[in-house]
Write a structure and sequence with these properties.
- The protein is an alpha/beta fold.
- The chain has one domain.
- It is built from 13 helices and eight strands.
- The chain has helices at about 15-25, 40-45, 50-60, 65-75, 85-100, 110-125, 145-150, 165-175, 190-195, 200-205, 210-215, 220-225, 225-245, and strands at about 5, 10, 35-40, 60-65, 105-110, 130-135, 155-160, 180-185.
- The strands form two sheets. It has a six-stranded parallel β-sheet with strand order 4-3-8-7-5-6, sandwiched between helices. A two-stranded antiparallel sheet has the order 1-2.
- Strand 1 and strand 2 (about 10) form a beta hairpin.
- It is globular.
- It binds uridine-5'-diphosphate (UDP).
- The site of uridine-5'-diphosphate (UDP) has 15 residues, from helix 9.
- Uridine-5'-diphosphate binds next to helix 9.
Length: about 250
């Protein structure tokens, strides 16, 4: 069962649980799996953004991307124990795809970034079958056609890196048309894979300080990150309110 943060659901899974869910979906034993990474920023945005909220409610798997969600859960004795970052889960899914022969499609980012991300994945997982790829700069009028093209490649896994909310919008509107079995919005992950945005050193990642490294690299993110303390306080108080109401 999902744990709700300001009424936005997050699933208390670790990466093994997420991979298991993907396996079941690729095997066709369950409906296609829509994966969304949730961080405090998205929770706050979804308070007023009905489309985003709708998307999150529709997703089969909402992973806790961001130490803020785990922190909020701990503060109130919740069940979300692990962070499962979007880029890590994507890499695990691709590793599994290479092992199982699942076909992967990469949609999004600038053409050269898309190409470099694909090359990097093939370097890391030489047995990977890339069903196809396409950059993310197209008109909304072309979205339907692109979804049909993806379907024609027979891809099992679809990673969409169009940024928010474009990737959510694409997946909600055209996800089914792509015929893919696991679909995931991955934000700036292709840029990370292509080496355009370096990841934090491993020690910082393990300590849950990736956000601090990003702030150092991209100081303009400060405004966006300021939602974290607001989120923590509200998520904590919200729980108290509900407990009070139930008494
Ligand atoms: N992007 C795209 N098409 C667009 C706008 C953005 O493919 O029309 C790509 C962009 O090149 C980047 C990714 O979307 O690779 C994520 O962008 P950003 O980091 O701005 O998104 P966020 O996840 O922060 O919303």
């Amino acid at each position: 069962m999902a744990e709700r943060f300001l009424d936005i659901p997050v699933d208390p899974v670790d990466s093994k649980g997420a991979l298991d869910a993907a396996r079941v979906a690729v095997a066709g034993e369950r409906p296609p799996l829509l994966v969304i990474a949730i961080n405090p920023e998205k929770v706050m945005k979804a308070q007023s953004d009905v489309e985003l909220r709708n998307f999150i409610e529709h997703a089969g798997l909402r992973i806790a991307d961001g130490v803020g969600i785990v922190l909020a859960s701990r503060l109130r004795g919740g069940r979300v124990r692990n962070r499962v970052t979007g880029v890590d889960l994507m890499l695990q899914l691709v590793a599994e795809a290479a092992k199982q022969g699942w076909r992967v499609f990469l949609l999004g980012a600038r053409p050269e970034v898309n190409e470099a991300a694909a090359a990097e994945l093939l370097r890391r997982f030489p047995s990977l079958v890339l069903a196809g790829r396409r950059d993310g700069y197209f008109s909304p009028d072309d979205a339907e056609h692109i979804a049909s093209e993806i379907a024609a490649t027979g891809a099992d896994l679809l990673f969409v890196a169009l940024g928010s909310p474009a990737q959510e919008r694409f997946l909600l509107q055209w996800g089914d048309r792509t015929g893919t079995k696991v679909r995931m919005g991955v934000g700036g992950s292709f840029d990370v894979l292509a080496g355009r945005v370096p990841r934090a050193p491993a020690a910082m990642r393990r300590a849950g300080l990736e956000w601090l490294y990003r702030l150092y690299r991209e100081p303009w993110r400060l405004r966006r990150m300021l939602v974290l303390p607001v989120f923590l306080v509200r998520a904590y108080l919200h729980r108290q309110d509900r407990a009070g109401a139930a008494r």
